[in-house]
Amino acid sequence: xxxxxxxxxxQRIKELRLAKGFSQEELAEKINVHRTYMGFIERxxxxxxxxxxxxxxxxxxxxxxxxxxxxx
Length: 72
Fold this sequence. Notes:
Number of helices: 5
Number of strands: 0
Order of helices and strands: HHHHH
Shape: globular
Distance between the termini: 16 Å
Structural class: mainly alpha
Oligomer: single chain
C-alpha cells in the first residue's frame, strides 16, 4: 500500500512538472533539492517531507490537494 501511494504521488508530480514544461533539474532548483532526489520522488523511491510537498505545490502553482489527486 505505502509503495503504491509513493509511486502514484511521484507520477502525479511528474505529470504536473511536464505540464508546466519543467525539467527535473529545473523543478529541483525551484524547491532547493538535488536533481537526483527529484527523480527518486517521481519514481516513488522517496517519501518527501511536508515542507518539500509544500514547496512542490508552490513551484508547480497548484493547491496541495491537487498533488494528491491520483485516486481517480
